[in-house]
Amino acid sequence: MSLPVFNEFVIHEDDNVGPRWERYVQKLNNMFVAMDINNEVRKKAMLLHFVGEPVNDIVHTLQLGEGGNSENCYETLCSKLTAHFKPKTNRRIMIFKFRSAKQEESEPFEDYVLRLRNLASKCDFTDIEEEITNQLIFTIRDKKLQRKALEDNLPLEKIIDIAKNNAADRR
Question: Which candidate, 152, 101, 90, places its Cα nearest to that of 131?
Fold first, then answer.
């Protein structure tokens, strides 16, 4: 059996090693589907073959627990490696960045909401929608919308709908 060509995973220090690892595993899983490989033993063996020596060195340091050396631990191994490559974040810094966000002068409302969602996703908030709503109310440029959101206690989706309608009316 000849193995297909598949690039090894390149480890270098950057902020996106976690997302790059997740994409790598997705591509590997897509290859498994395309090649009709369902056997966990084969998946694990192919993963270890393709990732390269630096990742194999990491694998040897992981605590895989019971079954870590067993034949059907492909998912466990992928989970452990994903956790290893996931960037470590300082929650307080992430919350500071979120709280410091303000709608820029030329920034469309929808882009600002998207930026807040991205920032909030890194803050480990209990209620992301509520946090985004509050941040919007404090920082949006449209003072009429701000007043309406406060007075009517509007949920996030309603604020977004009103902003979209206002933008459509200005066109």
Answer: 101
Confidence of residue 122 (pLDDT cuts 50, 70, 90): confident
What is the reported pTM?
0.55
- In a 13 Å sphere around the CA of 19, the CA atoms on its Cβ side amount to 3
DSSP the chain: -PPPP-PPPPP--STTHHHHHHHHHHHHHHHHHHTT---HHHHHHHHHHHH-HHHHHHHTTS---TTTTSTT-HHHHHHHHHHHHSPP--HHHHHHHHHH----TT--HHHHHHHHHHHHTTTT-S-HHHHHHHHHHHH-S-HHHHHHHHHTT--HHHHHHHHHHHHHHH-
84: left (phi over 0), alpha (psi -120 to 50) or beta: alpha
Is the CA virtual torsion 80, 81, 83, 84 positive or negative? positive
Q: What is the mean pLDDT of residues 95-124?
A: 94
* Distance separating alpha carbons of residues 8 and 52, to the nearest angstrom: 5
